[in-house]
Amino acid sequence: xxxxxxxxxxxxxxxxxxxxxxxxxxxxxxxxxxxxxxxxxxxxxxxxxxxxxxxxxxxxxxxxxxxxxxxxxxxxxxxxxxxxxxxxxxxxxxxxxxxxxxxxxxxxxxxxxxxxxxxxxxxxxxxxxxxxxxxxxxxxxxxxxxxxxxxxxxxxxxxxxxxxxxxxxxxxxxxxxxxxxxxxxxxxxxxxxxxxxxxxxxxxxxxxxxxxxxxxxxxxxxxxxxxxxxxxxxxxxxxxxxxxxxxxxxxxxxxxxxxxxxxxxxxxxxxxxxxxxxxxxxxxxxxxxxxxxxxxxxxxxxxxxxxxxxxxxxxxxxxxxxx
Length: 323
Ligand SMILES: NC(=O)c1ccc[n+]([C@@H]2O[C@H](COP(=O)([O-])OP(=O)(O)OC[C@H]3O[C@@H](n4cnc5c(N)ncnc54)[C@H](OP(=O)(O)O)[C@@H]3O)[C@@H](O)[C@H]2O)c1
Fold this sequence. Notes:
This protein is α/β, with parallel strands linked by helices. The protein contains twelve helices and ten strands. Helices cover about 35% and strands about 15% of the residues. It has an eight-stranded parallel beta sheet with strand order 3-4-5-6-7-8-9-10. Strands 1-2 form a two-stranded antiparallel ribbon. Helix 1 (about 30-40) crosses helix 11. It binds NADP nicotinamide-adenine-dinucleotide phosphate (NAP). Its EC number is 1.1.1.307. It is an enzyme of class 1 (oxidoreductase).
């Protein structure tokens, strides 16, 4: 069954598929096949990052799909992210070019600042991806790069055509408001953790007021973080088993996962679910063809606990970016 995924128009005029495929925790040995099969299934957006350590393999899947005539490069929307040890102005362009080479493409459709915190530079020859620790073990070392200087570098790589659109991730309201004081180019998108336990309605409102499209990550809440052995995730009831989500899924003949994704897409938010299973990635794409009732959307939003899982300290990493 072919699924028609709608596109959202970004503030720079570029069009982005509203449903994409997330590449975090897609194993290196299966990544190329997973990307190839996801393209075959109908995915056009891939959400990657230096930190996921699988950009080479994701690019191999893309190259095979293009070679086999499934898609052309221009049919795809490839997203990547700048890791925080490359925030210094002079490091942004070289690392963008390395990431493009890893993917085997000559532009990203969208390039994001992954986290609003600058860490000291680690050369790719020393360790890649570098991770959070300067010494690769336990030491957090910050760099003096301001977010303003990193954004200036983003505006410059966009001018050079290395990224068609530029955006940010994991920014809060204060950082967005600050960015508006210096940005010559407003971010096209804001990627944030967004699920019924972490709704952030005012952050979404602020982004919308400024014409910035929001992409939700970790739409299934604790599920993704259980795989990381995160205690707070293990201690939180799964959204898939929540009576409200189950009741609504049954009423629509859909899975809880599809309801969680539709809760976002119906409010104009994009989603990038990840799955290592062909059956699940197929169902995750079909999340714009049915409508929830207004009161169902509200009931789901009312599950909010203001509970963010993706915080470095939850992984035992002593970086206090979200303190
Ligand atoms: N900007 C950031 O800081 C940031 C942070 C986190 C994530 N992200 C991006 O967002 C993407 C999505 O977030 P995520 O990977 O954290 O989590 P997610 O997509 O919310 O959840 C993935 C988990 O849900 C399972 N799953 C997927 N589809 C399912 C379905 N239909 N039914 C039941 N279980 C299902 C997956 O298992 P199986 O694989 O076994 O199906 C996996 O355990 C990432 O891959 C990444 O691209 C960005």
